[in-house]
Amino acid sequence: MVFQLGSALLDACVLAVLDKEDTYGYILTQNVKEVVDISESTMYPVLRRLQKEECLSTYDQPFSGRNRRYYAITDKGKDKLCLYRDDWSEYKLKIEKIMMGGINNE
Fold first, then answer.
1. Where is the Transcription regulator PadR N-terminal domain (predicted)?
2. Rounded to two decimals, what is the model's pTM?
């Protein structure tokens, strides 16, 4: 994709993935990669920031003799995701309008 993904849109993508189910960092990165090219080294600061903002919580699960850290969306994160979804709907309509030639100079 040639369009840059801003931090708010990246946050929205992370929250949307976690709204479906809790998951760990690698799988979360792979899900977001379906939309935008992102590395795990970019993803973890986003996760830490969302945790600090109390939008995510974490818990560990044993896996093959070690712990795997899972991320879960909190109620505050769900509220933020609702705002992002509303903003996205409005933004998407405006972009589609201009991209499809629907804006006239008056």
1. 14-81
2. 0.84
Distance of alpha carbon 79 from alpha carbon 86, whole angstroms: 11
CATH number at residue 69: 1.10.10.10
Residue 10: which residues within 8 A CB-CB, separation 6 or more?
A: 32, 36, 38, 46
- Condensed to tens digits (0 to 9), the pLDDT of residues 4-34 reads 668 888 999 999 999 999 999 999 999 999 9
Q: Which pLDDT score, from 0 to 100, does residue 35 have?
A: 85
Domain carrying residue 22: 7-99
Q: Tell me whether residue 75 is in a domain.
A: yes
Count of domains for the chain:
1
CA gap 71, 33 in Å, rounded:
17
Q: Does any domain span residue 104?
A: no
Reported as a single tens digit per residue, the pLDDT across 32-54 is 999 888 888 889 999 999 999 99
